[in-house]
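Lab notebook: predicted structure, single chain.

Context: the supervisor wants predicted structures on file for every construct in the current expression panel, including those that have not yet been purified. This is the next one on the list. No modifications to the sequence; it matches the entry in the shared construct table.
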Amino acid sequence: MNIYFKRSIDNNIDIKNKICVMICEICNKKGRMKTQAAVIERLLKYRDVMQKMKGMGFVRVFSDNLGDAVGVSPSLVRKDFSLFGLTGNKRGGYQIEALISRLNVILGKDRKQKIIIVGCGKMGRALMNYNGFPRVGIRVAAGFDSDPAVLDETAPIPILHISKMKDFVSENNIQVAALTVPEPSAQSIIDSLKKTCIKGVINFAPISLRSSEDFIIQNINVEQEIENIFYQIHVAENSTETTGIPNEQTETTD
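Prediction complete. Output recorded below exactly as produced.
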């Protein structure tokens, strides 16, 4: 029995998946995995779809189910899986539970992944309390800030002074940080993080920072993302006014 998960236009900023991709890219640098970030991101999406299907009671899935849900062709789903020796049955598809377990190992999701938040203002605290992280095995180990008013070493997720960041990162073997500081502070914080064992940063500061060969930076500019949404709404409205035909944003399947 086939089931198709309808997808909306793919503009979602999935923070947890971006962190997972970054962790896999760090593994790439160590020679443990030679895979493009786009493939890793698709594997994460396939796994998310299968987890939802498993919760609905399904035990098998077909490549066309996954392709429809993620917005790619069934042949690309099979190609992605074949890179890791993941095979299914043409008539029976893939066994969901077994495939999720294999993907968890491939993506490093079979173990806890710890991150820190640098900058504990409103956005930083929102990330610290984001309930999507625990569901995919990501734990926020601590937050760091220079403002004495927000420091709290006894909180469930402690907020420590920025001066303690280097030792904490080293002692807890943290490799990924989320940066939510004002623009003027961003580069200096990056320079400090490069002196630790941090290998990747999700940057929410409104400034584009460059990755290097041994330090990965993923820039997420929320302002630009909002502007992009307004632009797409504008284009869709103009298209409707010009042709009289609504601009379809979803795919339908019989």
